[in-house]
Amino acid sequence: MTDYLAARRSADSLELALKGEWRALRLNEIDAELSALDLAGVRTLEIATQELTLLDLSSAWRLREFIAAAERGGAKVSFRGARPERLEVLEEALARGDARAPGDEHSHESHLEPVTELGHYVVSAARDARSGLAFLGRVAVVMLAAAGSARRLRPTAIARHIYDTGVTAIPIVALIAFLISVIIAFLSAQQLQRFGAEIFVVDLVTIGVLRELGVLLTAVIVAGRSGSAFAAEIGAMCLNEEVDALYASGADPYELLVVPRILGLMIALPLLTVIADAIGLAGGALLCRFLLDIPLTQYLQRVSESIGAWTFWVGVLKAPIFAMLIALAGTYRGLQVSGSSRELGRLTTVAVVQSIFIIILADALFAVLFMEINI
Amino acid sequence: MPEAARVVLDVRGLVNRFGAQVVHDGLDMQVYAEDVFGIVGGSGAGKSVLLRSILGLEHPESGVVSIGGRDLARLTDAELRSVKADYGVTFQAGALYSSLTVLQNVQFPMIEHLRLPVQALDELAMLKIRLVGLSAETAGKYPAQLSGGMVKRAALARALALDPQLLFLDEPTSGLDPIGAAGFDDLLHELHSQLRLTVVMITHDLDSIFRNCNRVGVLVDRRMEVDTLARIVDHPNPWIQAYFHGERARAREAKYGA
Fold this sequence. Notes:
The complex is a heterodimer of chains A (375) and B (258). Chain A has 2 domains: 5-94, Transcription Regulator spoIIAA (2-Layer Sandwich); 128-372, no CATH class. Helix content of chain A is 70%, strand content 9%. Chain A has 12 helices and 4 strands, in the order E-E-H-E-H-E-H-H-H-H-H-H-H-H-H-H. A 4-stranded mixed sheet of chain A has the order 1-2-3-4, with helices on one face. In chain A, a hairpin with a 3-residue loop joins strand 1 and strand 2. In chain A, helix 5 (155-165) packs parallel to helix 9 and helix 7 crosses helix 10. Chain A is elongated and about 105 Å long. The mean pLDDT of chain A is 88. By secondary structure, chain B is an alpha/beta fold. Chain B has one domain (34-58, 85-256): Rossmann fold. The mean pLDDT of chain B is 85. Chain A binds chain B through residues 23-25, 27-28, 31, 56-59, 61, 89-90, 92-94, 96-103, 338-342, and chain B through 82, 85-86, 98-99, 101, 103, 110, 113-116, 120, 122-128, 130-131, 133, 135-137, 139-140, 142-144, 160-163, 194-195.
């Protein structure tokens, strides 16, 4: 009735005939059959091994546990047929030192855990702040040093990053700018129509897109596309010891990897913003024409009336600052990667989340600043 | 070993081609139970492609690979899974899962194939870790914290997790210092005699071949010359002569009298 053993029980003795192949892969079944045996009151345990064709190390371990349980219960254990040699191998392996699985020593700290967790958090936050400052300083020094010579500025690398982060992002940036301006125009048209003030839809679209949304949405998209790419590229290079190879060959990874990315993105993002502004205004024009019957000439006239001296520049001037923040977050987190592929994923996520957060925070600060200086 | 030993791994007529480049052209090899079979060949001779074909990571253009008498190409997914649970593999760079500790790495195949209580998993994994000569302290470490020799041993412990009868090792001693490599050879020797494993290993290490292998297959001219170690060293092929009797091989010859 069972596959791996046949048991014969008398008053105070148990005869166990092992049979078949005892393999690690069948350990669940073997475990179930052994656990089903009742060892209570067994004085002598005889184990027959003639029909056992294979006993691997894992199942030998399970058999040893069973024998140990029988002996604890006061049984005398003997073998009929040969005692399996795997049991000897197992004893030898077990004799090779400490059997305890690691990780046990942490379990008894549980009641202090919140405190130690808080401590770890504070210390790691402080370290992060310090290394972030060190990174900023290092980047500033390298950038100033490189500014003196065209060769050290790596124009080829910068051009590649302008292409990767800027040119290839044009379709998605344009699409999002178009959709956003359509949404603003539609939303404001619904409200303003009630007062017969549809013409102000143009003002809302123009100022909204040029001052805030054009640059902000472009920056968010670029943070998702390029901030993550920076962190992942540099992080994979760290894991692959390529960054160490750069240091070892006397090259400066900051000059080669960090600065070109920062400068490339600082050039690409303002240009993307201009494109987003143009497409946004075009989207507004389209919606005004077909939903509100404002002809194109009137739309353009209204746009030029509503635009102030600074409306366009307020948006575009923010772009290089946002670009710098995105590139700094991406490259900084990328260079922190070490050890495992999980770190790479974690730090790439951190890079994107932090750069989006910093952009929005910076945008809020800009809003206050521009209000104070009345532009 | 008895004359009519059981064939564990059988490769017949293997052809592998990448574009115009023919890597294997009608390669045959047989590995018998309890062999320690060394695969030798120059860089680019197709050792790794051969191993990848055997493991099913590469699909050969033609040819048959059978493990334990079962043609891998004709198996269902479930059967293939059970064949895979029957052999263990170590890769050249260890290929330990970097986000898991050594202990968790060893437990990984067990959790995939078995349903055991946590305590039994811990004890069985620790058994394998000690079997390859690593300490309990090492078991809690992550792969990035290990030395090269410890990575090789941890990879071996993971390969042994389900007590396979067949073991594939890809350059198990490469990148180790001579003492570490000798230690690994001794370990392999001991495991082979204790657990009666069949081992197929790719290696460049002549010491390792003379210490462990009873049969050797040499990849030359897109085929394989297979013979016992004692006989293959006298094979007339010039590459094989250069390999076993070159400058670097002389010292070993003096040592092992091959």
